[in-house]
Amino acid sequence: MSRASNNWEDQKMRWNPDNYSGLKALHVPYNELWIPDVVLYNSAIGNKIDQHGMTYSIVYNNGSVLWVPPSIYQAVCKMDLRFWPFDRQSCKIVIGSWTHHIGQIKLQPWTTWRESEILIPNDEWDLVNVDEQLNEKKYDCCEELYADITYTLTLQRRSEVYKTLIMTPVFVIIILSLSAFLLPTHAGEKIVLNSITAIIITYLLYDAGQRLPAIASNPPLIVLYFGSCLLMTAIAFFESTLVIKISRNYGAHPLPPFIKQALSGWFGSFILNGQNSQVQKKANDEELSSKVQAETSTLEFNREWIMFASALDRIFFIVYALIYLIKIISFYVTVL
Fold it and tell me: Which part of the chain is the Neurotransmitter-gated ion-channel transmembrane domain (predicted)?
């Protein structure tokens, strides 16, 4: 909402103050006077400006009229929401007469501007800058020149509240997602944690969809981040299900040789923090006996499979931690 100052002269509204007890000004309802047909060219609600209240005009004895109505300009503005909610938008407002040419109505841009005169204080936007330009154009319909004033408003979104509303859930998602990989391999709580994470992300995506305008040129990076987190949670859900199944149901079968060989080397020592000694010993025994298969107890098989499941959890933990770290650094460098 803003207050647009309109000044014009009406020859029919002149009088001599001496004839009316020194009266030099009148307050007249705007709908009882001639009003210039100044409209918003790029209006989003039709060819009109929404004025609020039954405002009065001030008519002076020399015929000059002053009308300053509180108005709402709803303009079509293409928004780039890539950095939402830490974005800065540039929006144009084009104002001009619809039927009067430059010989009939003279438009005068503001020489100076104050934020309070253009934008009513609000909790969403700060007005950073205003650029104005007076244009004179000739249209196909008419021979005369028609004037319009183009105001380019640069607006900065107030993001203090969004930093808490958005960044806090981001870290909660990371903590819950990584915690699922640290639980014991047979723990059903893995599924619970991943389910809670998926519900949180889904709600955040829904909430962002309700807050964002329908017209935008680029999807917000934070929405893309939440979308990728939801996909990663689905993959983690599948991994947790697989790890639980391996830990509980594969004790009757030996670990495949290529997996056992991988876990017995330096890679297994790094992933399992040296807990692969049993696999190492078993692999060496098989190599010394020319790979003659020995009888192994069900307990030993189960230990090997649990170790393999633990290795999967460790691998996913490291990969997910690196991905989240890269995402956070990229987001802060790009947006903040």
Answer: 167-290
